[in-house]
Write a structure and sequence with these properties.
The protein has 115 residues and is an all-alpha fold. It has a domain of 76 residues. Helices cover 62% and strands 0% of the residues. 10% of the residues are buried. Keywords: Membrane, Transmembrane, Transmembrane helix.
Length: 115
């Protein structure tokens, strides 16, 4: 009964904790909410005003990683109803701009790839 117990400690990355705490369907739910957001008419009209093609933006959203989708879904959820649409569209615009500059996509004709 008097056997010594051994304990060990190690650093756990935040990503491991977040993934363990997240429900299994949360990524699929986040993707569904983001796709529903981009399917809205007011969002599509705002993207057209900013010069972003809706089909190209949807293709880029489909190619986003799970972490990017969760972050974008969080921004959509935090936005006031009908108020922060331009902020989210600006976020997508910046993502598309960066991917164009890095050479992953070719959405905007005014960018040059660094590759």
């Amino acid at each position: 009964m008097a056997m010594p117990m051994h304990a060990s400690a190690q650093i756990v990355p935040t990503d491991a904790l977040v993934q363990a705490a997240a429900p299994a369907g949360s990524v699929a739910d986040s993707r569904a909410r983001v796709n529903a957001f981009f399917a809205r008419d007011d969002v599509r009209q705002a993207m057209v005003k900013e010069g972003v093609d809706g089909a190209s933006a949807q293709a880029r959203v489909d190619a986003m990683s799970d972490d990017e989708i969760r972050a974008l879904d969080g921004r959509i959820a935090e936005a006031p109803a009908g108020g922060e649409v331009l902020g989210i569209i600006f976020t997508v615009f910046v993502i598309l701009l960066v991917t164009d500059i890095l050479g992953f996509t070719k959405v905007f004709p005014f960018t040059r790839s660094i590759r």
